Amino acid sequence: MCESSSAFNRCRTRDLQVGFYAYVKATLQLSSASFCTRLSMSAAETNSDRTAAKATAVALDSGRPRLLIVDDQDEVRRTVAELLEDTFRIIGMAEDGERAIELASVLHPDVVVLDICMPVLNGIDAAERLRASGYPTKVVFLSMQDDPEFVSAALATGALGYVLKSSVGTELISAIWKAVEGRRFISPALCWH
C-alpha cells in the first residue's frame, strides 16, 4: 500500500493488475519462461556476497544501459524484463522500494524502472531516498496510476520518466532511452500534464 498521501492510498485493485498481465502477454506474445527467472536475488544471496554481486554486474555490462526493475508483482517484473531484455541489460529485479535501494547500492544500475504502489516502501519514497543518497541512477516510473497527484509526486523526485502500464509495450523503451540521455518522457495519454 502507498503511504505518501491520500491519493496514494487509492492504489488499484489486483483485478487491474491481472488484466495488465493478460494484456501485455497477449500483445507482446511473450513466453513465460525466460532467463529473467535467474535474475531475482534473495536477500540472503545479496547480503552474504555483495562482492560477488558487484563482480557479476561488471562482467555482465556490455555497453547497453543497465536496468533494475522494481514492482511488487512477480509477473509484472518478469514480463517487463522480457520486453526489455533484447535492448537493455537487466541486472536485477526487486519486489519493493526498500529492496530496490539495497540492490541499487550493489549493482549501480543506469536506470531504475520503478512502480509506485508497493509494500514496505513505495516507489515515490524509494526514488526520493535514491536521490538523497546521491546515486546517479535515473528513474522511470511504470505505473497504472494516471491521477495527476501521482504523476506530480513522481516527477518531483527527479524522475525522468512516467509510463502508464497500459502503454508499456509502446512507450517504455523510448522512455528509458530518453532517461539515459537525461531527457524527460511522460506517456502522451497524460496530456493534461
Primary descriptors:
193 residues; Rossmann fold; six-stranded parallel β-sheet; globular; disordered N terminus
What does this structure look like?
By secondary structure, this protein is an alpha/beta fold. The protein has one domain: Response regulator (Rossmann fold). Helices cover 45% and strands 14% of the residues. The chain has eight helices and six strands. A six-stranded parallel sheet has the order 2-1-3-4-5-6, sandwiched between helices. Helix 6 links the parallel strand 3 (111-114) and strand 4. Helix 1 runs parallel beside helix 4 (74-84) and helix 5 (97-107) runs parallel beside helix 6 (123-132). The longest helix is centred in the first third of the chain and has 15 residues, at 14-28. The protein is globular, with a radius of gyration of 15 Å. Residues 1-61 have low confidence and may be disordered.
Largest sheet strand order: 2-1-3-4-5-6
Number of DSSP strands? 6
Number of helices: 8
| CATH architecture descriptor text | 3-Layer(aba) Sandwich
Topology:
Layout: H1 14-28, H2 43-48, H3 50-60, E1 66-70, H4 74-84, E2 89-94, H5 97-107, E3 111-114, H6 123-132, E4 138-143, H7 148-156, E5 161-164, H8 168-180, E6 185-186
Helix pairs in contact: 1-4, 5-6
